[in-house]
Design a protein that fits this description.
This protein has helices at 46-59, 88-103, 133-145, 156-164, 204-225, 247-257, 280-289; strands spanning 4-11, 14-21, 24-32, 38-39, 42-43, 66-71, 77-84, 110-116, 123-132, 152-155, 169-174, 178-185, 188-196, 237-240. A hairpin with a 3-residue loop joins strand 11 (169-174) and strand 12 (178-185). It contains seven helices and 14 strands. It has two domains: 4-74 and 134-289, 2-Layer Sandwich (Nucleotidyltransferase, domain 5), CATH 3.30.420; 77-131, Dna Ligase, domain 1, CATH 3.30.1490. It is globular. Helix content is 33%, strand content 31%. By secondary structure, it is α+β, with helices and mostly antiparallel strands. The chain has a five-stranded mixed beta sheet with strand order 3-2-1-6-10, with helices on both faces. A four-stranded mixed beta sheet has the order 13-12-11-14, sandwiched between helices. A three-stranded antiparallel beta sheet has the order 7-9-8. Helix 1 (46-59) crosses helix 3, helix 4 packs across helix 7 (280-289) and helix 5 (204-225) runs parallel beside helix 6.
Length: 290
Protein backbone atom coordinates (compact mmCIF):
# COMPACT_ATOMS: atom_id res chain seq x y z
CA UNK A 1 0.00 0.00 0.00
CA UNK A 2 1.38 3.41 -0.99
CA UNK A 3 2.16 5.84 1.81
CA UNK A 4 1.84 9.60 2.00
CA UNK A 5 4.86 11.65 1.07
CA UNK A 6 4.86 15.28 2.18
CA UNK A 7 7.30 17.60 0.39
CA UNK A 8 8.23 21.05 1.73
CA UNK A 9 10.00 23.87 -0.07
CA UNK A 10 10.62 27.52 0.83
CA UNK A 11 9.95 29.70 -2.22
CA UNK A 12 10.13 33.47 -1.91
CA UNK A 13 8.15 34.24 1.24
CA UNK A 14 5.91 31.18 1.07
CA UNK A 15 6.09 27.58 2.17
CA UNK A 16 5.03 25.28 -0.65
CA UNK A 17 3.49 22.04 0.50
CA UNK A 18 2.65 19.09 -1.72
CA UNK A 19 1.46 15.69 -0.56
CA UNK A 20 1.27 12.51 -2.59
CA UNK A 21 0.02 8.99 -2.14
CA UNK A 22 2.97 7.16 -3.64
CA UNK A 23 3.43 8.66 -7.10
CA UNK A 24 -0.01 10.31 -7.18
CA UNK A 25 -0.23 13.95 -6.12
CA UNK A 26 -3.13 14.49 -3.70
CA UNK A 27 -2.96 18.07 -2.44
CA UNK A 28 -0.86 21.22 -2.56
CA UNK A 29 -0.83 24.68 -1.06
CA UNK A 30 1.30 27.80 -0.53
CA UNK A 31 1.53 29.28 2.94
CA UNK A 32 2.82 32.87 3.32
CA UNK A 33 5.15 33.77 6.19
CA UNK A 34 6.92 36.81 7.60
CA UNK A 35 9.73 37.86 5.19
CA UNK A 36 11.99 38.42 8.21
CA UNK A 37 12.15 34.65 8.70
CA UNK A 38 14.49 34.50 5.66
CA UNK A 39 17.74 36.37 5.10
CA UNK A 40 19.98 36.05 2.02
CA UNK A 41 17.99 32.99 0.97
CA UNK A 42 18.55 31.14 4.26
CA UNK A 43 16.35 30.48 7.28
CA UNK A 44 17.07 33.35 9.70
CA UNK A 45 14.39 32.59 12.33
CA UNK A 46 14.05 28.80 12.70
CA UNK A 47 11.60 29.07 15.58
CA UNK A 48 9.30 31.50 13.76
CA UNK A 49 9.33 29.54 10.50
CA UNK A 50 8.95 26.25 12.36
CA UNK A 51 5.80 27.51 14.10
CA UNK A 52 4.31 28.59 10.75
CA UNK A 53 5.03 25.14 9.36
CA UNK A 54 3.57 23.36 12.39
CA UNK A 55 0.35 25.36 12.21
CA UNK A 56 0.06 24.85 8.44
CA UNK A 57 0.39 21.07 8.70
CA UNK A 58 -2.05 20.80 11.59
CA UNK A 59 -4.66 22.96 9.85
CA UNK A 60 -4.42 20.79 6.72
CA UNK A 61 -4.28 17.51 8.68
CA UNK A 62 -0.91 16.66 7.13
CA UNK A 63 0.78 15.48 10.31
CA UNK A 64 1.50 11.92 9.14
CA UNK A 65 3.69 10.65 6.32
CA UNK A 66 7.26 10.66 5.06
CA UNK A 67 8.56 14.23 5.04
CA UNK A 68 11.12 15.44 2.50
CA UNK A 69 12.31 19.03 2.19
CA UNK A 70 14.39 21.24 -0.07
CA UNK A 71 17.45 23.30 0.82
CA UNK A 72 18.45 26.42 -1.07
CA UNK A 73 21.63 26.00 -3.13
CA UNK A 74 22.80 29.57 -2.44
CA UNK A 75 26.40 29.30 -1.22
CA UNK A 76 26.95 25.79 -2.54
CA UNK A 77 29.77 24.90 -4.92
CA UNK A 78 29.27 22.49 -7.80
CA UNK A 79 32.09 21.44 -10.13
CA UNK A 80 33.22 18.73 -12.49
CA UNK A 81 36.85 18.00 -11.63
CA UNK A 82 39.22 16.49 -14.21
CA UNK A 83 41.86 14.52 -12.31
CA UNK A 84 44.63 12.14 -13.28
CA UNK A 85 43.75 8.45 -13.09
CA UNK A 86 44.76 7.04 -9.72
CA UNK A 87 43.89 4.06 -7.56
CA UNK A 88 40.48 4.28 -5.90
CA UNK A 89 42.14 4.46 -2.49
CA UNK A 90 43.95 7.65 -3.46
CA UNK A 91 41.05 9.41 -5.13
CA UNK A 92 39.38 10.58 -1.92
CA UNK A 93 42.41 12.50 -0.67
CA UNK A 94 42.93 14.12 -4.08
CA UNK A 95 39.27 15.21 -4.19
CA UNK A 96 39.62 16.70 -0.69
CA UNK A 97 42.65 18.70 -1.79
CA UNK A 98 40.95 19.93 -4.97
CA UNK A 99 37.81 20.81 -3.04
CA UNK A 100 39.83 23.06 -0.72
CA UNK A 101 41.34 24.73 -3.75
CA UNK A 102 37.94 25.26 -5.38
CA UNK A 103 36.30 26.78 -2.29
CA UNK A 104 39.42 28.79 -1.51
CA UNK A 105 40.20 27.49 1.96
CA UNK A 106 39.02 25.20 4.73
CA UNK A 107 36.11 22.82 4.36
CA UNK A 108 35.28 22.93 8.07
CA UNK A 109 32.11 24.97 7.46
CA UNK A 110 30.84 22.82 4.57
CA UNK A 111 29.70 19.29 3.86
CA UNK A 112 31.55 17.67 0.96
CA UNK A 113 29.93 15.22 -1.47
CA UNK A 114 31.59 13.72 -4.53
CA UNK A 115 31.06 10.97 -7.06
CA UNK A 116 33.42 9.51 -9.63
CA UNK A 117 31.97 9.68 -13.15
CA UNK A 118 32.46 7.08 -15.91
CA UNK A 119 35.90 7.44 -17.48
CA UNK A 120 35.63 8.72 -21.08
CA UNK A 121 39.13 10.17 -21.56
CA UNK A 122 42.58 9.79 -20.09
CA UNK A 123 41.32 11.80 -17.09
CA UNK A 124 39.12 10.75 -14.19
CA UNK A 125 36.16 13.10 -13.88
CA UNK A 126 34.59 13.63 -10.47
CA UNK A 127 31.37 15.47 -9.61
CA UNK A 128 32.03 17.70 -6.59
CA UNK A 129 29.45 19.39 -4.38
CA UNK A 130 30.03 21.41 -1.21
CA UNK A 131 27.11 22.55 0.96
CA UNK A 132 27.49 25.13 3.76
CA UNK A 133 26.60 23.67 7.15
CA UNK A 134 24.92 26.65 8.82
CA UNK A 135 21.90 26.98 6.45
CA UNK A 136 21.26 23.24 6.68
CA UNK A 137 21.40 23.34 10.48
CA UNK A 138 18.97 26.30 10.54
CA UNK A 139 16.54 24.41 8.29
CA UNK A 140 16.78 21.35 10.53
CA UNK A 141 16.08 23.52 13.58
CA UNK A 142 12.94 24.89 11.91
CA UNK A 143 11.82 21.32 11.17
CA UNK A 144 12.45 20.33 14.81
CA UNK A 145 10.38 23.31 16.03
CA UNK A 146 7.53 22.03 13.85
CA UNK A 147 7.93 18.56 15.35
CA UNK A 148 9.17 17.10 12.06
CA UNK A 149 11.98 14.66 11.42
CA UNK A 150 12.55 14.81 7.64
CA UNK A 151 13.53 11.55 6.00
CA UNK A 152 15.40 13.34 3.23
CA UNK A 153 16.77 16.78 2.42
CA UNK A 154 17.72 17.64 -1.14
CA UNK A 155 19.11 20.72 -2.87
CA UNK A 156 16.55 22.56 -4.98
CA UNK A 157 18.54 22.28 -8.25
CA UNK A 158 18.84 18.49 -7.83
CA UNK A 159 15.12 18.18 -7.11
CA UNK A 160 14.39 20.25 -10.22
CA UNK A 161 16.65 18.05 -12.33
CA UNK A 162 14.80 14.95 -11.14
CA UNK A 163 11.37 16.47 -11.86
CA UNK A 164 12.32 17.71 -15.35
CA UNK A 165 13.50 14.15 -16.03
CA UNK A 166 15.68 14.76 -19.08
CA UNK A 167 19.18 13.45 -19.73
CA UNK A 168 20.20 16.81 -21.20
CA UNK A 169 18.46 20.06 -20.29
CA UNK A 170 18.72 23.69 -19.27
CA UNK A 171 16.49 24.45 -16.29
CA UNK A 172 15.58 27.99 -15.27
CA UNK A 173 13.78 28.25 -11.92
CA UNK A 174 12.65 31.73 -10.93
CA UNK A 175 10.81 33.01 -7.89
CA UNK A 176 10.07 36.51 -6.61
CA UNK A 177 13.51 36.84 -5.01
CA UNK A 178 15.66 33.93 -6.20
CA UNK A 179 16.87 32.12 -9.28
CA UNK A 180 18.38 28.71 -10.01
CA UNK A 181 19.86 27.71 -13.34
CA UNK A 182 20.88 24.09 -13.85
CA UNK A 183 22.64 22.72 -16.93
CA UNK A 184 22.27 18.95 -17.13
CA UNK A 185 24.49 16.90 -19.44
CA UNK A 186 24.41 13.10 -19.44
CA UNK A 187 22.28 13.11 -16.27
CA UNK A 188 24.91 15.15 -14.40
CA UNK A 189 24.23 18.70 -13.12
CA UNK A 190 27.39 20.02 -14.72
CA UNK A 191 26.68 23.63 -13.76
CA UNK A 192 24.48 25.03 -10.99
CA UNK A 193 23.91 28.76 -10.56
CA UNK A 194 21.81 29.77 -7.56
CA UNK A 195 21.36 33.39 -6.51
CA UNK A 196 19.30 35.33 -3.99
CA UNK A 197 18.03 38.51 -5.67
CA UNK A 198 17.31 40.61 -2.59
CA UNK A 199 15.30 40.87 0.62
CA UNK A 200 12.49 42.83 -1.04
CA UNK A 201 10.09 41.00 -3.33
CA UNK A 202 10.64 42.01 -6.94
CA UNK A 203 7.95 43.14 -9.32
CA UNK A 204 7.02 40.51 -11.87
CA UNK A 205 8.47 42.47 -14.82
CA UNK A 206 11.75 43.18 -13.02
CA UNK A 207 12.07 39.58 -11.84
CA UNK A 208 11.55 38.32 -15.40
CA UNK A 209 14.38 40.56 -16.60
CA UNK A 210 16.78 39.61 -13.79
CA UNK A 211 16.17 35.89 -14.12
CA UNK A 212 16.45 36.05 -17.91
CA UNK A 213 19.80 37.83 -17.59
CA UNK A 214 21.09 35.20 -15.13
CA UNK A 215 20.09 32.44 -17.53
CA UNK A 216 21.78 34.05 -20.53
CA UNK A 217 24.98 34.69 -18.52
CA UNK A 218 25.07 31.13 -17.23
CA UNK A 219 24.74 29.66 -20.73
CA UNK A 220 27.47 31.99 -22.01
CA UNK A 221 29.74 31.03 -19.10
CA UNK A 222 29.23 27.33 -19.77
CA UNK A 223 30.00 27.68 -23.46
CA UNK A 224 33.10 29.76 -22.73
CA UNK A 225 34.30 27.09 -20.28
CA UNK A 226 33.57 24.25 -22.73
CA UNK A 227 34.73 25.67 -26.03
CA UNK A 228 35.42 22.21 -27.46
CA UNK A 229 31.94 20.98 -26.50
CA UNK A 230 29.55 23.95 -26.16
CA UNK A 231 25.85 23.41 -25.57
CA UNK A 232 23.84 22.20 -28.55
CA UNK A 233 21.94 25.24 -29.92
CA UNK A 234 18.79 23.10 -29.89
CA UNK A 235 19.15 22.03 -26.26
CA UNK A 236 15.80 23.13 -24.79
CA UNK A 237 15.05 25.22 -21.72
CA UNK A 238 12.57 24.13 -19.06
CA UNK A 239 11.05 27.02 -17.10
CA UNK A 240 9.96 26.37 -13.52
CA UNK A 241 8.91 28.46 -10.53
CA UNK A 242 6.25 31.14 -10.05
CA UNK A 243 8.07 33.73 -12.18
CA UNK A 244 9.97 31.56 -14.65
CA UNK A 245 6.89 29.45 -15.30
CA UNK A 246 4.99 32.45 -16.63
CA UNK A 247 4.24 33.10 -20.30
CA UNK A 248 6.11 36.49 -20.33
CA UNK A 249 9.26 34.78 -19.06
CA UNK A 250 9.06 31.99 -21.66
CA UNK A 251 8.62 34.53 -24.47
CA UNK A 252 11.49 36.66 -23.16
CA UNK A 253 13.86 33.71 -22.82
CA UNK A 254 12.99 32.25 -26.22
CA UNK A 255 13.74 35.64 -27.81
CA UNK A 256 17.01 36.18 -25.91
CA UNK A 257 18.45 32.69 -26.37
CA UNK A 258 16.88 31.46 -29.59
CA UNK A 259 16.31 28.14 -27.84
CA UNK A 260 13.09 26.13 -27.68
CA UNK A 261 11.05 26.20 -24.47
CA UNK A 262 9.74 22.76 -23.65
CA UNK A 263 6.64 21.90 -21.59
CA UNK A 264 7.06 20.36 -18.15
CA UNK A 265 6.19 16.67 -17.85
CA UNK A 266 7.25 15.42 -14.41
CA UNK A 267 6.97 11.61 -14.09
CA UNK A 268 4.19 11.65 -11.50
CA UNK A 269 0.42 11.42 -11.67
CA UNK A 270 -1.26 14.70 -10.81
CA UNK A 271 -4.56 16.57 -11.34
CA UNK A 272 -4.84 18.79 -14.40
CA UNK A 273 -5.42 21.86 -12.22
CA UNK A 274 -2.04 21.58 -10.44
CA UNK A 275 0.16 24.60 -11.33
CA UNK A 276 3.05 22.35 -12.29
CA UNK A 277 5.72 25.05 -12.74
CA UNK A 278 5.14 26.28 -9.17
CA UNK A 279 5.56 22.83 -7.62
CA UNK A 280 8.42 21.29 -9.62
CA UNK A 281 10.78 21.37 -6.63
CA UNK A 282 8.18 19.56 -4.52
CA UNK A 283 7.61 16.94 -7.19
CA UNK A 284 11.35 16.36 -7.48
CA UNK A 285 11.41 15.77 -3.72
CA UNK A 286 8.59 13.22 -4.01
CA UNK A 287 10.50 11.40 -6.74
CA UNK A 288 13.55 11.17 -4.48
CA UNK A 289 11.44 9.66 -1.69
CA UNK A 290 9.72 7.01 -3.83
Amino acid sequence: MAKRILSLSIEGTTLRLLSSNGDSVEAWDSVPFNPRFIRNGYVADPEGLGQVLKNALEERKLTKGKVVCALSAVGTTSRILSLPKVDKGQLGSIVQREARRVVGGSLDDSYLHWRALPIKTTQQEVYLLTVPKEPLHALMKAMATAGIKPRLIDLKPLALMRAVNRRDAIIANGESNSVEVVIVIDDVPTLIRSAFLGEELLSSDYAVGRISDELVRTIAYYNDSHREEPLDPELPIYCTGAVAGSIPFAINVATLTGRPIQPLEPPLRYPAELPVAHYMVNMGLVLKAL
